[in-house]
Amino acid sequence: MQKVNKLLKKYALKPHRYQKEGQVTFVDTEEGRYAIKPKNSEKNNIYQYLDTRSFGYYPKVLSEEDDEFEITEYEQDLDMPSEQKILDLVDLVSLLHNKTTHYKEVDEADYKKIFEDISNNIEYLYSDYNDRMNLIESHIYMSPSEYLLARNISKIYAALGYAKKELDNWYYLVSELRKERLVVIHNNLDLTHFIRNKNSYLTSWRKARIDMPIFDLYKLYLRHSLDFDFYEILRRYEKNYPLKEEERKLLFILIALPDKLELTDSEYQNCNIIGNLIDRLYKTESLLSPYYMKQEKNG
Q1: Residue 69 φ/ψ, nearest 5 degrees
Q2: Looking at the domain covering 96-298, what would its CATH class be?
């Protein structure tokens, strides 16, 4: 807190109330409310770069590059339906990607690494779920969570099989490419990192980087797949920023992969963990099916 107070003094801000939420400290001052959080030194110039691309949709930053903490003006979030808010978030993300799009020569080693990383993950998940099923089948009686997993294991294996097949198709597809499309990705998308009032703002830029646009959609799906209709969200995004065939295919591979199970000592929690896993697999299947039905119809 001593360092924070020193920084506040530097910018002539007189605090009278502090509120800590995770890594962020909200400070009420005579001049207004501010958010203070540790700065990722690797991302010091992200705001300057966004400004050069005419993307100023982030709270005003008071701090300077050499400051240890980032100080931003606090923006009040409007109370609005979450279904509308996530569409506004997607509109802003598609604008971010549009504003920062650039192309570079393909490095085959990058695609090879993606292919190998996902392949290894698929093999690991196959092995892990097989081991779990062998253990479950050795029990005389199944626990509720074990029964839930056993009853839906075919859905998990089907998702892994789909990912493996599509990964081979994706790798063949990108082998013909000479340039790849890159953007600034926020890399930490969540409704809690989006503010909507008279303007729209994205907060929490500490993980931002240059990468393929689908990784923002992937992160958003992981966090909110059970909360919203992602068919509509993806349709809305692609209306503003259409995905290329190889991008969409890789996105679908990533979201189709089942989670690695991290179970606990609580049977109640384990039922919730496995239940959410199964729910997301069904949700993903319903999201992907229309795209492949459309392909078959056009093919």
Answers
A1: -120, 155
A2: alpha beta
Residue 229 corresponds to which amino acid? D
Read off the tokens for 215.
Answer: 């990784």
Task: Provide the token pair at 264.
Answer: 């606990």
* Residue ranges of the chain assigned to CATH 3.30.200.20: 2-74
pLDDT in tens, 177-187: 999 999 999 99
Q: Which residues contact 171 (CB under 8 A, 6 or more apart)?
A: 111, 115
Which of 240, 241, 247 has its CA nearest to residue 291? 247
Chain-centroid distance of CA 30 in Å reads: 36
- Strand partners for 15: 29
pLDDT tens digits along 3-41: 888 888 889 988 989 998 888 899 999 889 999 988 765
At the topology level of CATH, where does 2-74 sit?
Answer: Phosphorylase Kinase; domain 1 (3.30.200)
